[in-house]
Structures are given as structure tokens and as C-alpha cells.
TrEMBL record, chain A:
UniProt main location, coarse: periplasm
Keyword Lipid biosynthesis part of the UniProt annotation: no
Localization of this protein: Periplasm
An MF annotation (GO) of this entry: peptide transmembrane transporter activity
Residues of the Solute-binding protein family domain: 103-447
Official protein name in the record: Twin-arginine translocation signal domain-containing protein
Family: Belongs to the bacterial solute-binding protein 5 family.
Pfam families according to UniProt: SBP_bac_5
PANTHER family per UniProt: PERIPLASMIC BINDING COMPONENT OF ABC TRANSPORTER, PERIPLASMIC OLIGOPEPTIDE-BINDING PROTEIN-RELATED
Cross-referenced SUPFAM superfamilies: Periplasmic binding protein-like II
Keywords, alphabetical: Signal, Transport
GO CC terms, sorted: ATP-binding cassette (ABC) transporter complex; outer membrane-bounded periplasmic space
TrEMBL record, chain B:
Recorded coiled-coil stretches: none
Keyword Transmembrane (UniProt): yes
Principal location listed in the UniProt entry: membrane
Protein name: ABC transporter permease subunit
Topology in membrane: Multi-pass membrane protein
Family: Belongs to the binding-protein-dependent transport system permease family.
């Protein structure tokens, strides 16, 4: 896309916002101007919605996870409060739209060379920091270098391990040079650590001041307590209907729910699934139930007996009644898993793979084939893994009895579960946060040499496809590869995936939202403050 | 009066020694927790590489004893160090929080102490009547329920069913005093309910205990009205145990409010301490714990001094 095309698209979007252009004309104009159909469609959705959104009001937003020890350092973002704040006062190069497509944030457009080993991002020339200065390519380079280098303590360092160099080309162009092809790089840019901060003269970034180029600027705040923000009038994006935003850390589920019921807040980022049905009965409250890419997994060490036999692994996968688990443990707020770690909320999801159902008889015959009848295994779990994790393990043990399998549920201490149990015990229960693409997820936890290969699974074809798909720019070819990988993981892998948990969150009745809510985080991808509005 | 001064000085000296022991216990308790600050801060993004880089920056690889002595060296000169997580001076990190906690404690104490003592006097006067029984049952019920449960009950009736008070006590700097008192009323009321029973029961018991004394008998015989017997004759001799219990409860108002803070999302020091423990942020944990320990030591001292002042006999131990 050239710069002229970008201007044209911006004008078309203006037209759509004022209602002058029909969707059909809009699509043909913007694809003629060089946009992909998916990009045009999501631009239409964001522009056209602006017609019924009203400006004004103070949006009070209760967020379920915050800590006094939080900081503005993007390298150590870990709590939801900081992640959502980052999406409100800072910008990213790209963003995940409500319909799950990838759209522009600071970067207007991006393109790769033929092998996907070099990516060029064009920065929106209208983007500015709250301090007034324009966002330049230098700021972007410095912000990414914050996560690279030997002495970086950033939690996102591993994500950039195949980035060889990042260079600014003029004020508005940034080039990423990679050691190998990575067709997912624009998706990776949405990772919550990669917030763009103003660069200092020495090439470091000023994260301390809390300056950013997002839709709202911070007026005052205290970590782990609350932040007050007001609209950044020069914001480069669409939306930001509220005049002011107040983000309150409400860690206690009951306090959060009461605040929503009494109207002390306008929205909360998490609703307890146990009380979800009761809240839905209140006519003044909307409850959103959005499938996510976060999952509960039960990895088995594929190199440790008895899990080194694929029939045993598949027998265990067949011995869990996912429907009952979702109904009783998650109160329906989950999407059924199929033993491959690729959720319908992620791109390239293969929709034609048969669902694995509860089948104790087949499990029995597989065990017979493997000579492992009357199997007994230990399953480690703890309540801190997820709400109802121990109950779920006990329920699974009941299901498995029908297949002649004895599962001993081992209750481990909550504190330190991920240092002492995960990756150490051969069969345990794990909760995974959402990752943007199947490549990121598979590379992190299923690649043969990954540090977090939690099931010790080694499959040559899978690893070969993983590398191929990563550098493949043709979407339909990529989708085919991910389908084959999903089949391999499902039929040969060592992980039982009972479900992908939904994001369940709420808002008062007078809050307007787009039809599609982003599945990347709670509260519309963490961007409720800039995407939602008041209807009264 | 010199005896009193000597006693205060002696007790302050022991207090400092106690603080030292507390600080050692806290340090090694935090050390015993699995994981360290680097792992806690990096969370799911912790790779061996980044954890090592962060440990190097924070100097976590040195022996625990060295790190403790270093911290102690700073602490005796009034420098409590910087938060391991945010890099801010500890004083900044918990100063405002402690002021908030003191405010809530004072708010609750101003209501609870006079209320409990008056109620104690009244039930002593009307002892074994229906009023006495009802007051005892109600206050004992409220002290026997966990604070968070009392908080939820108050929220249910005074915030959800009857929208009189806000359910969450979030503060902002531009609030007027009236607004502040309104916003924090429910957490203060919860604390009042929790501490009243103890003080009231002690007042009642201390007074009734004295009623069998010959000098009370004498007062009665000379025709003094019952309320006057209690207020003028019994109460002055009952102050010592009452002051003790009041001091203990004041300390509780400062140190025991974590649950109330969580339920009402009140930004006090208890919440800051819980956050710091989950992040293994030792300097903040240490400073908060020392504040709690010092509160107990000082209030206990105040109780003893108060008891001695109200009871001259205690000044001349046999």
C-alpha cells in the first residue's frame, strides 16, 4: 500500500462514518485502494458503528487483577489491570479487531518480502504522544529493543528471539529483519508487552512517566488501586467515546459483582461463572460470554511410562466426558476442546476435525491393545490452577472408572505450583492464557525443543510443518498445514484438552458495545474504554 | 513519676529488641516461600535467561544473611530501601496506605470505644435483664462472625437492598471530608461490630466484679442511686482492665483489617502487605510487618501506662 492509498482509505472511512457510503461501495473502494477484504470488512465495522455511538461520560471500569507492585514497564506487565491500562493509554503496532481479524493501530500498513523474513511497517503519520510529540519510527525501534539484548529482563524476550535487527527508515517506516521467515509477525505485534513508549536520546525508552500514544492519557493513579484517565484528543484511531475513564482494581469477586449490581462501576472485566446465571436475570446488567483461546490442558510425559504408549494416551483422552466437565465445573462458560491446542478464537482454526467424545468402551479396547488394562495413574492438581481445578480432576477420575482406569487425584500446594509441579510431574493440570496465533502456542509448548514442551512430545512431521507454516504467506496453504498439525496433536500428542475457557464479563445496561467482541482478552480485548460507549 | 518514666524507657528498649527479632523472622519466612521476586514478577513469561538477568540486577544471588544485614544496616539509619518490584522507595509505596489505614482505624475507634463503654455501663446497670441478654447475644454474634461475612451482610442490606452507602470504598484525593466519611462508613461499621463485643463485655465484667466490694455496699447503704454507684464509685476502679482491652482492640483495628480492606476494596496497608507477599517483595513486607509490630508494642505500652495512671496502687509494686 502506498501512502496515497492510505489517505484514500482514511477518506473512505470518514465517508462511512458519516453514513455517505454503503457497505458494498465501501468494500469495493477500499479493496481497490489496496486493502485486503478482511481488512476492509473490519474497517467498515469500526467506522459504521461510530454512527450510533455517542460521545461523553465517565466510564468506571472494575478490573479483576491488579497489584500494588505493578509498574509501567512494558517488559514486566503481568496483571490484567496493567494490560488493560496499556491498551488504553499506549498503542501497539497492530490490534486484534472485534471479529478476530488483524487491524491497524499505530502501523497503517505492513508488508513482507517473499520469504517473510523481512517486514516493513508504515507508522500512521497522525499518531502523537500525550506530551504532544509525534510518534516516530525511532520510538518504535527503542520500544522493541527494550525487550531485546542480554540484560533485558523483559518477559517477552523469547518472542523476539528470531528478530535479528530492527531499523528505522525515515520517520514513518520500520523494518524488522528476521533470522527466518515468520508470517505471523504482524500478529505478534499485538502481544501486550509490545506497547510503544517514547524513546530517550540514548535509545532507551521512557516508560517511567506513563506517557503513551493511546486513546486516553493518565491524569492520576496509584498501582493496584485505581487510575483516572481523560481522552487524548489527538488520538490516531477510531472510537474513544467516553470523556473520562476510571479504572479500579477490584480483586475480590464479590466486591466486583456488588459494584456492578449497585452501579458503582459501569463494567467489570470478570464475572464469577458460579453467579453468572443469577446476574443475567438482572435487567440492568449485560453479561458477555466470549469464547477465548485460553485453555485447560492435562499434559502427559510422552517419554515416561505408561504415557509412552500412544494407545494409553488416547485412552485417557477418550475417558473424559467434556460435556459434563463444562456443565458442572465451568457452568457452561467454555468451548469444548478436541485435544489440539488451537482454539476457534484463533486464526486458521480447522472446523472440519471430528470432535472427540467420551467413549469408555473404545478406551478399554485401546488399553487392551496396549496391554495396560486396569491402568492406574496419578494426576497432580491444585485449586490455584483455575476455579474448580480439583473438582474437575475428581470428576475426570469418576469418568475414567468406566474405562477401567484409576486416576489418583494428587492435591499439590497452591503456592509455587508452576515451579514445583508443572514440567516436573508426568501428568498434571495446567491453565494457559490466550495466545494470538496457533504458531505462537505450538512453538511455546509443543515444539520438540521448547523449554515449556509440557508433554515431552516429539513428532517429526509436526515439527517440520510448524517451521514450514511459520514462513508461509499463502493463507490457504497455511490453514491446511495447521489442520494437519491439529490432527497429529489430536491423535498422537500427549495432551488432553477438555475445554477452552470463555471470558465472562459484564456491563451495566446503558453501556453500548459493538456486535463483535474481541476474544484476545476480557472486556473486548482489553479495549473496552476506546470501543464502548454510553447509550443514554 | 520517675518510676513511670523508667518503666516507659525500659519497655521501649524491649520493644526495639522485639522489632529486631520480628524483622529476622519475617526475612527468613519470606526466604522460605517457594519462588523469588524475579519469578513472581515475570510470571508466565519467566525464562531461565530473564530470571537470571533480573536476579543479577536485584542482587538476589548473594547469600540471604548478607542481604539481611544490608537491609538492617539501612533500616537503623531510617532507610528502609526500595521496593524490589517497582524500584520506588518503600516509604512512598506504603506511606499513603498507612495513612488510609490509620484513618479507617480512627473512624471506627471514635464510634466503637465510646459506644462499647457506654453499652458496657448500661448492661452492668441492667445486668441479667432482657436488655443485657439481647445486647450480649447481638455483640457476641457479631464478634463470632468472620469480618468478611459481616461486611457482606452490611453490603447486602445497606447498599444493595437499601442504596444508602456505596459498596466499594474507593478513595480519590479531591473528596470532601463528608464524602470520605460517607464512602468509608460501611468498612468502619464492620470494624465497629467486630471490636465492640470485647470492650463491652470487659467493661461489664470489670464493673460487676467490683459491685461485691464493701465500699460499694457502703455507697448503696447511704442511698446513692444505682447509676451513680456505677459511674462514680465502681468505674474509676475498673479502668485498668478496660484500658487494656481498648488498647488491644485499637491495635487490632490497624493490623487486623486485611479482610475488611479486601471486601470493600479499601486501599489500606493490609492490602499492600498481601500484594507484597505474593510478589516476594521483601522490603515492603518487612516495613509493613514492622509497622504492625510497632503498633502492638506501642499500644500495649500505652495500655500499661494508662492503667498505672488510673490506679496509683500499681505505681508502688510490693
Amino acid at each position: 500500500m502506498t501512502k496515497k492509498d492510505n489517505d484514500l482509505i482514511r477518506r473512505i472511512a470518514e465517508g462511512a462514518k458519516k453514513g455517505q457510503i454503503s457497505r458494498r461501495d465501501f468494500m469495493s473502494y477500499s479493496t481497490a485502494a489496496g486493502m485486503t477484504a478482511a481488512g476492509a470488512s473490519s474497517l467498515w465495522a469500526t467506522s459504521a458503528h461510530a454512527q450510533d455511538a455517542k460521545r461523553g461520560g465517565t466510564f468506571r471500569w472494575g478490573i479483576h487483577d491488579g497489584n500494588t507492585g505493578d509498574t509501567h514497564d512494558p517488559g514486566t506487565y503481568v496483571t490484567r489491570t496493567m494490560i488493560f491500562l496499556a491498551h488504553t493509554h499506549r498503542s501497539y503496532l497492530t490490534m486484534i479487531n472485534g471479529d478476530g481479524s488483524l487491524g491497524p493501530d499505530l502501523a497503517d500498513s505492513w508488508e513482507a518480502n517473499e520469504t517473510a523474513s523481512e517486514w516493513t511497517f508504515a507508522i500512521n503519520p497522525n499518531a502523537s504522544f500525550h506530551s504532544g510529540r509525534k510518534v516516530t519510527a525511532n520510538d518504535v525501534v527503542a520500544s522493541f529493543n527494550h525487550h531485546r539484548g542480554d540484560d533485558s529482563t523483559s518477559a517477552a524476550k523469547a518472542l523476539l528471539s528470531d528478530v535479528e535487527d530492527i531499523v528505522a527508515d525515515g520517520d514513518t517506516t520500520v523494518k524488522f529483519i528476521l533470522t527466518g521467515g515468520n508470517a505471523d509477525l504482524p500478529w505478534l505485534m499485538t502481544d501486550y508487552h509490545f506497547a510503544i513508549c517514547p524513546a530517550n536520546d540514548d535509545g532507551t525508552i521512557d516508560w517511567q512517566s506513563g506517557d503513551g500514544s493511546g486513546p486516553y492519557k493518565i491524569d492520576s493513579g496509584e498501582f493496584g488501586v485505581q487510575f483516572s484517565l481523560s481522552r487524548h484528543e489527538g488520538w490516531h484511531g477510531e472510537g474513544a467515546y467516553f470523556d473520562k475513564v476510571e479504572m479500579l482494581t477490584l480483586n475480590d469477586p464479590n466486591a466486583r459483582q456488588t459494584a456492578l449490581v449497585t452501579g458503582d462501576v459501569d463494567a467489570v472485566s470478570q464475572v464469577d461463572v458460579k453467579t453468572m446465571a443469577l446476574l443475567q436475570r438482572d435487567p440492568n446488567i449485560q453479561v458477555f460470554n466470549v469464547p477465548s483461546a485460553g485453555a485447560i490442558t492435562l499434559p502427559m510425559f510422552c517419554d515416561t511410562a505408561p504415557f509412552d504408549n500412544v494407545d494409553v494416551r488416547n485412552a485417557l483422552k477418550l475417558s473424559i466426558d467434556r460435556d459434563e466437565v463444562i456443565e458442572k465445573i465451568m457452568f457452561g462458560a467454555a468451548t469444548k476442546g478436541n485435544d489440539f491446542h488451537h482454539s476457534p478464537a484463533q486464526p486458521y482454526w480447522p472446523d472440519d476435525i471430528p470432535q472427540r467424545e467420551y467413549d469408555p468402551d473404545q478406551a478399554k479396547s485401546l488399553l487392551k491393545k496396549a496391554g495396560a488394562e486396569g491402568l492406574t495413574v496419578n494426576l497432580s492438581t491444585a485449586d490455584s490452577v483455575s476455579a474448580g481445578a480439583v473438582d474437575m480432576a475428581v470428576l475426570y477420575a469418576e469418568h475414567a472408572k468406566a474405562a477401567g482406569i484409576t486416576i489418583n487425584v494428587v492435591r499439590e500446594p497452591n503456592d509455587g505450583y508452576y515451579s514445583d509441579v508443572w514440567l516436573k510431574k508426568p501428568f498434571c493440570l495446567v491453565s494457559w492464557g490466550a495466545r494470538p496465533t496457533p504458531d505462537v502456542m505450538y512453538t511455546l509448548a509443543y515444539k520438540a525443543d521448547a523449554a515449556w514442551n509440557e508433554s515431552h512430545w516429539q513428532n517429526e512431521r509436526f515439527n517440520e510443518l510448524l517451521l514450514q507454516a511459520k514462513a508461509e504467506l499463502d493463507d490457504s496453504l497455511r490453514a491446511e498445514m495447521y489442520r494437519e498439525m491439529a490432527m497429529l496433536a489430536r491423535n498422537d500428542g500427549g495432551t488432553v484438552i477438555p475445554f477452552f475457557n470463555n471470558f465472562v464479563y459484564g456491563a451495566r445496561g446503558n453501556v453500548g458495545t459493538p456486535d463483535n467482541l474481541a476474544a484476545s482478552w476480557e472486556s473486548d480485548g482489553g479495549r473496552a474504554a476506546s470501543r464502548w460507549w454510553f447509550t443514554d | 513519676m520517675n518510676d513511670l518514666l523508667l518503666l516507659v524507657l525500659k519497655r521501649l528498649g524491649f520493644g526495639l529488641l522485639t522489632l529486631l527479632v520480628v524483622s529476622i523472622l519475617i526475612f527468613f519466612a519470606v526466604e522460605l516461600l517457594p519462588g523469588d521476586v524475579a519469578e513472581a514478577v515475570l510470571g508466565q513469561g519467566a525464562t531461565p535467561e530473564t530470571v537470571q538477568a533480573m536476579r543479577d540486577q536485584l542482587g538476589l544471588d548473594r547469600p540471604a544473611v548478607v542481604r539481611y544485614l544490608e537491609w538492617l544496616g539501612g533500616a537503623v539509619t531510617g532507610d528502609f530501601g526500595v521496593s524490589a518490584v517497582s524500584g520506588e522507595p518503600v516509604i512512598n509505596a506504603i506511606g499513603d496506605r498507612f495513612v488510609n489505614t490509620l484513618f479507617l482505624a480512627a473512624y471506627a475507634a471514635v464510634i466503637a470505644v465510646p459506644f462499647a463503654i457506654l453499652l458496657g455501663i448500661v448492661v452492668a446497670l441492667l445486668r441479667n435483664s432482657v436488655f443485657d441478654r439481647v445486647a450480649n447475644v447481638l455483640t457476641l454474634t457479631s464478634i463470632s462472625s468472620p469480618e468478611f461475612f459481616l461486611g457482606y451482610i452490611l453490603i447486602l442490606y445497606l447498599s444493595v437492598k437499601l442504596p444508602l452507602f456505596p459498596a466499594i470504598a474507593s478513595l480519590s484525593s479531591d473528596m470532601s471530608l463528608g464524602e470520605l466519611l460517607h464512602r468509608t462508613f460501611l468498612p468502619a461499621l464492620t470494624l465497629v461490630l467486630v471490636v465492640t463485643a470485647h470492650m463491652m463485655r470487659m467493661t461489664r465484667a470489670a464493673i460487676i466484679n467490683l459491685l461485691a466490694s464493701p465500699y460499694i455496699e457502703m455507697a448503696r447503704l447511704k442511698g446513692v442511686p444505682p447509676w451513680k454507684v456505677i459511674v462514680r464509685h465502681a468505674l474509676p476502679n475498673a479502668w485498668a482492665p478496660i484500658i487494656n482491652v481498648v488498647a488491644l482492640n485499637l491495635a487490632y483495628l490497624i493490623t487486623g483489617v486485611v479482610l475488611v480492606e479486601v471486601v470493600f476494596v479499601y486501599p489500606g496497608i493490609g492490602q499492600a502487605l498481601v500484594d507484597a507477599v505474593s510478589k516476594r517483595d521483601f522490603p515492603v513486607v518487612q516495613a509493613s510487618s514492622l509497622i504492625f509490630a510497632a503498633t502492638f508494642i506501642l499500644l500495649n505500652l500505652a495500655a500499661d501506662v494508662g492503667a498505672i495512671i488510673t490506679n496509683p496502687r500499681l505505681r508502688h509494686p510490693k
